[in-house]
């Protein structure tokens, strides 16, 4: 593999790994703040226990997310320095806002929340929880604004051959970002919802026969957590569907090749059918060996809200892209083996086609498991079969897979561009991925790739160990030991620890 391919693998591995922690942190931060709000308003000890247990898991996940997220910033200087020089005047602004505003607030109020249980007034401590949760979402907003600019560059002008930002409001108000933000947040809530359902369902089933005087004392905590997760997951999936439709219409306007690749649509259709499943080699642009099962005219509706819109196919778009952006890479030695070679404007079709379906499919499965859990636990019921906890625990992985597949589709679908051209924007405002990589040797990139991969594997083991430890410990593992002469789990002991 050459430097470009290795650099892409490195960025992909570190980014996907980091994004496993991000949605869980965002979703759990809001849910934990909501649990604490319920406790402050009602005084019900059940909500206090929920806050302590899920808050502990939130802290473990947040810590790992911070460690892995720092590397993301280094990536731009390590392997993508040419990209950083080209877009730094624009890209740096939202990243700086994320660091100076969102992350600073996030870290400050999280610290106050951790150490303020018995030091701050109830409502002040609760406000810290909400400040942390809102800052987490603000952090996502700034990061997504930067990423959306790469998908649809706006608010810039060319100065000395480089984009210079002329409106921060245009960058932050980019319609691509405004569609991506609610979609990403809904994905975060789907992840945390499945996490609640899986963990709470396992504890609930594990304690199904315990008397109330023993392990069954916390049964209401697990039931409330499971049902909260189930409802949040259903609502989150509905929001994902609505915002995904909005993104699809923007994709039709801004990145038509990505839409065609998502459907492996080789030839222009009017009306265009939506492919449910393909059998054969979708990588072949002529589609001769592919059989698809489709819904007639649905792709036209997803593209333009009607059932007759023409959707261009990959073969037809290649000529349009060549006419606009050139047929060959510049004959520049910095481009390595791609210097002077023809530009391949077609993304990896198997990745985009199946990634798009994995995003939708696994998201739907996660919501479906949540709905099933709600039905099976209605009116105090609890299935006694072994498959029940196994299904719910396995369901934790489904929205994680769906989120990752969605990001892989989004990023690989815009290739060969690292900054995709805006069809109605500044002429010449784009950058090929091959032009963005640093001037490094293959050995140097191999070294950093292997080092970071091994490091991340080690951090993954630590995360799983800590998560498993605190999950298995249950409520008892996050509450203080009872004072002398008090019964374990008594209200007085628990609440005196809090304040």
TrEMBL record:
Primary localization class, coarse: membrane
Compartments, as annotated in UniProt: Cell membrane
Highest taxon of the lineage: Bacteria
Keywords: Cell membrane, Electron transport, Heme, Iron, Membrane, Metal-binding, Transmembrane, Transmembrane helix, Transport
Coiled-coil residues: none
Membrane topology, from the record: Multi-pass membrane protein
InterPro entries, per database record: Cyt-d_ubiquinol_oxidase_su_1
Residues annotated as transmembrane: 20-41, 53-71, 91-115, 127-144, 185-205, 226-244, 354-376, 388-409, 445-466
Recorded family membership: Belongs to the cytochrome ubiquinol oxidase subunit 1 family.
Protein's name according to its UniProt entry: Cytochrome ubiquinol oxidase subunit I
Organism: Amycolatopsis rhabdoformis
């Amino acid at each position: 593999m050459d430097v470009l391919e290795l650099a892409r693998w490195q960025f992909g591995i570190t980014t996907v790994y980091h994004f496993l922690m991000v949605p869980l942190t965002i979703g759990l931060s809001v849910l934990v703040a909501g649990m604490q709000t319920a406790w402050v308003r009602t005084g019900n000890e059940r909500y206090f226990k929920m806050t302590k247990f899920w808050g502990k898991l939130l802290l473990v996940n947040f810590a790992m997310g911070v460690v892995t997220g720092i590397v993301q910033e280094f990536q731009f200087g390590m392997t993508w320095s040419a990209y950083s020089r080209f877009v730094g005047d624009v890209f740096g602004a939202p990243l700086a806002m994320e660091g100076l505003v969102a992350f600073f607030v996030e870290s400050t109020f999280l610290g106050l929340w951790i150490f303020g249980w018995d030091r701050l007034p109830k409502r002040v401590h609760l406000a810290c929880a909400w400040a942390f949760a809102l800052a987490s979402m603000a952090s996502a907003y700034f990061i997504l604004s930067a990423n959306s600019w790469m998908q649809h560059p706006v608010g810039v002008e060319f100065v000395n051959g480089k984009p210079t930002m002329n409106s921060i409001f245009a960058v932050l108000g980019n319609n691509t970002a405004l569609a991506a933000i609610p979609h990403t947040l809904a994905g975060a809530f789907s992840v945390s919802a499945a996490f609640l359902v899986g963990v709470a369902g396992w504890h609930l089933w594990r304690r199904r026969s315990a008397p109330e005087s023993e392990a069954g004392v916390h049964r209401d905590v697990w039931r409330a957590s499971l049902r909260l997760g189930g409802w949040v997951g259903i609502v989150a999936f509905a929001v994902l569907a609505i915002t995904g439709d909005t993104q699809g219409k923007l994709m039709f306007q801004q990145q038509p090749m990505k839409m065609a690749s998502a459907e492996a649509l080789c030839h222009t259709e009017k009306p265009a059918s939506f492919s449910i499943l393909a059998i054969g080699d979708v990588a072949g642009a002529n589609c001769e060996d592919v059989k698809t099962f489709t819904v007639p005219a649905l792709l036209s509706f997803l593209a333009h809200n009607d059932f007759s819109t023409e959707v261009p196919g990959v073969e037809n778009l290649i000529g349009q892209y060549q006419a606009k952006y050139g047929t060959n890479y510049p004959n520049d030695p910095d481009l390595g083996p791609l210097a002077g070679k023809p530009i391949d404007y077609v993304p990896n079709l198997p990745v985009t086609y199946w990634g798009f379906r994995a995003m939708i499919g696994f998201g739907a499965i996660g919501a479906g498991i949540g709905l099933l859990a709600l039905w099976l636990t209605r009116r105090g019921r609890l299935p006694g079969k072994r498959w029940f906890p196994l299904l719910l625990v396995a369901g934790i992985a489904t929205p994680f897979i769906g989120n990752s597949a969605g990001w892989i589709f989004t990023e690989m679908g815009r290739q060969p561009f690292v900054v995709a051209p805006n069809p109605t924007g500044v002429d010449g405002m784009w950058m090929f991925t091959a032009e963005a990589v640093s001037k490094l040797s293959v050995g140097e990139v191999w070294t950093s790739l292997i080092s970071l991969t091994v490091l991340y594997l080690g951090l993954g083991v630590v995360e799983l160990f800590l998560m498993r430890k605190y999950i298995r410990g249950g409520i008892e593992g996050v509450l203080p030991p009872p004072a002398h002469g008090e019964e374990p789990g008594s209200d007085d002991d628990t609440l005196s620890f809090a304040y």
